[in-house]
Amino acid sequence: MNEEQRRAHSKVNTSKKEEKDYSKYFDNVYQPPNLKDAKVRGKSDVVHSDFNIDEKFKGMGKGRKFYIKTYGCQMNIHDTEIMAGIFTALDYAHTTDVNDADVILLNTCAIRENAENKVFGEIGNLKHLKLERPDVLIGVCGCMAQEESVVNKILESYQNVDMIFGTHNIHRLPNILDEAYMSNAKVIEVWSKEGDVIENLPKVRDGATKAWVNIIYGCDKFCTYCIVPFTRGKERSRMPEEILSEVKELAANGYQEICLLGQNVNAYGKDLDIDYDLGDLMRDISKIDIPRVRFTTSHPWDFSDSLIDALAEGENMMPHIHLPVQSGNDQVLKIMGRKYTRESYLELVKKIRERMPDVALTTDIIVGYPNETEEQFLDTISLYEEVGFEHAYTYIYSPREGTPAAKMKDNVSDEVKRDRLQRLNRVVTHNTAHALSKFVGETVEVLCEGTSKKRDDIYAGYTDKQKLVNFTAPDDSVIGKIVKVKINHARNYSLDGEFIEVVNKNKVEI
Ligand code: SAH
Ligand code: SF4
Ligand code: F3S
User: Fold this and answer.
1) pTM for this structure?
2) Which CATH number fits domain 205-437: 3.30.70.100, 3.90.830.10, 3.80.30.20, 3.20.20.10?
3) CATH architecture designation of domain 443-509
4) Ligand showing the shortest atom-to-Cα distance for residue 263
5) Going by DSSP bridges, is the β-strand pair 468-472/11-12 parallel, antiparallel, or unpaired?
């Protein structure tokens, strides 16, 4: 189906007079998202194209305001910045007050059931607003929009939603808004395809200090529990020159830190017809005059020696690696489809530490995987201690429809799962506090992002190892700068200190 046909097929007339069964539209009018299609990884070349706004849409937002609520990971946070950029290019104004908005978007996350429940709660909350102001447009986008069951549920139970569009359709926002204004039917545009790479997307970035930079979209790993490969399409890298020119522009505009984004950044370049991988990209970025470079997330499977060398050698490469391990037990790792063992993970950690002795390692862990035994869980605890992780994001396994793990029988009760999470979290909290306590009396470099959440005479930012520091300083001229801070006190999750002096590593005048 070409783009015009897709557009024609994307409208569903769901006025209240209709029957509740919408499946009849799926055959001849509208193609629902389809997890099976989304799993296909064909050989077809990924289309790289440039975004531009059609003349006829210009000025569409004059006198109108947009509001976006974001759920989920950094990728969604950055997608929201892109949608804000598109709205701004259409002359919409931004509002942080949902009651003041003419267009409301919920940029959703599908990673766990509780993430989805939050979104359904919010759509429900917006029902009264739509009754009071029927002209308001309400849209659901992001990863949940790629799921057929979610789209069906919205069609059946949430008449207040006007637009549903997927993660591959963000660049189509002007067309989707136009269709929603022109008709009183719901506009649904979700492509269950492998995905394109769209360049030249406008962005309104949140802050002028740190910036997200997409390097690779999608994921081909298909870990057996995970919905992301279905919601984000196949792995597809941006061309190096596009990434490098974005980073150069950010550096020229005074940004102090970039974080390179991908569900699995280590797969960068594999899909391109050039001999260029993440190590090469990191080496090229280390030559750019931007003081701090981070990346997230990397799969232990393709963490190459060339990447380790680039991280160890690049002066602006930060000594922190987030390396999700998920479990410390070989059998569980195998069923998860992670394609590494406890031993090979430890081997990788050793190799990284040989080249970067001072590196801080953090991780993600899932407990209560189907049929996980007590011994298997204890292997995760022992691996945590053995590696000496400085922090972890920990989760109870949540079955995701359409994934292989969701079909597995599970003999672990919810109570046992919750108990394992609590026991793991005690270890995590203890080790996080211990890692922080080592900084007391030291002087560290902090990129000051602004004032602390609680007090506006206290400043806050992160160290090179991604530790949160709250500190006193004579005035707000520290904001946006890398400063030396003497650490006086360690808390469970943050450090307290006092400003010493500014370190300006950026050669560009700011
Ligand atoms: N691409 C990243 C992970 C992105 S999702 C990686 O592989 O490292 C972030 C984290 O959510 C995962 O690392 C995993 O710990 C957790 N997660 C993913 N699917 C989950 C599920 N079905 N239930 C519970 N946690 C899950
Ligand atoms: Fe999900 Fe695994 Fe891909 Fe990470 S690597 S996004 S956990 S499938
Ligand atoms: Fe959630 Fe999608 Fe990110 S499922 S974690 S928003 S890639």
Assistant:
1) 0.92
2) 3.80.30.20
3) Beta Barrel (2.40)
4) 1
5) unpaired
Q: Is 440 helix (H, G, I), strand (E, B) or coil?
A: coil
| pLDDT number for residue 506 | 53
For 223, the token pair is 């870990």
How many angstroms does the Cα of residue 384 sit away from the middle of ligand 1?
17
- What does each C-alpha distance from 180 to 99, 123, 185 come to in angstroms? 20, 18, 7
User: How high is the pLDDT of residue 184?
Assistant: 76
Residues 6+ apart with CB under 8 A from 231: 38, 110, 143, 144, 146, 147, 166, 167
205-437 and 443-509 share one CATH topology? no
Neighbouring CB atoms inside 10 A of 305's CB total 10
Instruction: Concatenate the DSSP letters of all residues of 272-326 into one string.
Output: SSSS--HHHHHHHHHTSS-SEEEEE---GGG--HHHHHHHHH-TTB-SEEE---B
- Please count the residues of the chain: 510
**85/65 Cα distance (integer angstroms):** 13
Please choose from 78, 109, 147, 299 the residue to mutate so as to test ligand 3's pocket, defined by most ligand atoms within 8 A of CB.
Answer: 109
CATH of 3-189, one of 1.10.150.20, 3.40.50.150, 3.40.50.10800, 3.40.50.12160: 3.40.50.12160
pLDDT in tens, 309-348: 999 999 999 999 999 999 999 999 999 999 999 999 999 9
| CB-based contact 4:179 (threshold 8 Å) | no
In short, whether 228's Cβ falls inside 6 Å of ligand 2 is yes
Ligand 1, atom nearest to 399 Cα: 22
**Domain boundaries in the chain?**
3-189, 205-437, 443-509
pLDDT in tens, 370-422: 999 999 999 999 999 999 999 999 999 999 999 999 999 999 999 999 999 99
Ligand 1 binding residues, C-beta < 6 A: 111-112, 225-226, 228, 263-264, 297, 299, 324, 326, 364, 366, 395, 397-398, 400
Inform me whether the pLDDT recorded for 29 exceeds 50.
Answer: no
How many A from CA of 393 to the centre of ligand 1? Answer: 9
Q: What's the distance, CA 388 to chain centroid?
A: 25
